[in-house]
Write a structure and sequence with these properties.
The structure is a single chain. The protein is of the alpha+beta class and about 260 residues long. About 40% of the residues lie in helices and about 20% in strands. It has helices at about 1-15, 15-20, 45-75, 95-100, 110-115, 130-150, 230-250, and strands at about 20-30, 35-40, 155-160, 165, 175-180, 185, 190-195, 205-210, 210-215. It has a 4-stranded antiparallel beta sheet with strand order 1-2-7-5, with no helix packed on it. The chain has a 3-stranded antiparallel beta sheet with strand order 6-3-9. It has a two-stranded antiparallel ribbon with strand order 4-8. Strand 1 and strand 2 form a beta hairpin. Helix 1 (about 1-15) packs antiparallel against helix 3, helix 3 crosses helix 6 and helix 3 runs parallel beside helix 7 (about 230-250).
């Protein structure tokens, strides 16, 4: 639900201001040195952050509920032993995982093995699937933890694939151009800086930032490529949590205590 609402807010923003949610400006000083800027108009950052935070909470709650419900079946008790301590542990080291043993104490041994194999602290996992699982769990846990302790996530427009096009006046030449790294436009709206030879203050310049813009979490790992969007990440997170729930449920089908 929160993922869909996040998408609606983002799409409404993209269609705002007559389909021009971003503004572009070009400035050139008397020496011909200038910058190309891009910035959003009325970016709904707080609304997006609220929905994203609730989405993270639901994912984390689903993992913790999985441990609780599994403990009920395995122990045959409701509430199960250690009910208030139970959660799905996601830890950065073997020591911290062992210190959290009470959080999965009522589970069967094979459940504990599964959970341990998924932990992010393993430098090498036995399969690509376990490696991906560990990376996703680590991302969910890290963002949910920050959201819980530091308030709303910072949601921003992410500018990438910058290839600015500059329409030079007659008689001018582009001496150099420097494109800025991919990043959030709210904090760094400069797409490129440049220097024009033979520039005079009476001239006019037109430029196109020619970049792709998507929505991103500012303090999360940056996108690896064009396919690594926030939308694709959240779909993978939901799919993984669903698979974990299904796997644990299937493991209990043959347990006489689940009858």
């Amino acid at each position: 639900m929160h993922q869909r609402k996040f998408g609606r807010i983002w799409n409404e923003f993209l269609s705002s201001n007559e389909g021009e949610p971003y503004r572009v400006s070009v400035s050139v000083d008397s020496k011909g040195q200038g910058e190309i800027y891009v910035w959003p108009v009325d970016f709904p950052g707080n609304e997006l952050a609220l929905e994203f935070g609730e989405f993270l909470y639901q994912l984390r709650a689903a993992l913790d509920s999985l441990i609780y419900e599994t403990a009920v079946v395995v122990s045959g008790q409701d509430p199960p032993p250690n009910a208030e301590d139970l959660e799905f542990p996601i830890r950065p080291s073997e020591t911290s995982f062992n210190n959290a043993a009470r959080k999965i104490a009522p589970l069967a041994d094979h459940h504990k093995v599964w959970i341990e194999e998924m932990q992010p602290y393993h430098r090498e996992h036995r399969t690509d699937g376990l490696q991906l699982t560990a990376q996703i769990l680590d991302a969910i846990n890290d963002l949910a933890r920050k959201d819980r302790h530091r308030g709303l996530r910072v949601i921003a427009s992410w500018g990438a694939n910058k290839n600015p096009q500059i329409d030079l006046p007659a008689g001018c030449e582009l001496e150099w151009v420097q494109v800025t790294p991919d990043g959030p436009l709210e904090r760094q709206g400069v797409v490129a800086t440049f220097k024009i030879r033979n520039w005079t203050p009476d001239l006019q310049l037109h430029a196109n930032p020619n970049c792709t813009i998507d929505v991103a979490v500012e303090d999360a790992p940056p996108p690896r490529d064009d396919e690594d969007t926030l939308a694709s990440r959240t779909r993978h997170w939901i799919a993984l949590v669903s698979l974990l729930i299904e796997g644990f449920e299937n493991s209990l089908d043959g347990d006489p205590r689940s009858a």
